[in-house]
Write a structure and sequence with these properties.
CATH topology: Rossmann fold
Order of helices and strands: EHHEHHEHHE
Distance between the termini: 17 Å
Strand order of the largest sheet: 3-2-1-4
CATH architecture: 3-Layer(aba) Sandwich
Structural class: alpha/beta
Amino acid sequence: MILCDTNILIEIYKGNLGVTEIVKSIGQQNIAVSDVTCAELIFGARNKKELQVIRKDLKKLHILPIEANISTLAVELVEKYALSHKLSLPDSLIAATAIIHDIELYTLNLKDFRFLKSVRLFQVS
């Protein structure tokens, strides 16, 4: 299982063939997203038609909810890294989801997570 950051799905919607091919090689059945990614995609929908497409696509993926242990870890990460590394709340929740579920995180924003030694980043070969 691979946790995809929001930017991965955005790139797929933009038609980025490189990202699309990588996600296809991982396999849809092996893709998970955080509730945070769901909320960010829904928030970014430009109209009702786009919103319907997003909802339909999300139903095909494993959605990992923000449970108490994820929330607690995210707060700890923010406390430790918000000032020094500008870790945002959404990124801390996504990172905590990857850590708690012990899965790799696929992101294009490596700088947002690289300093978190407990996050295993998906390496594109």
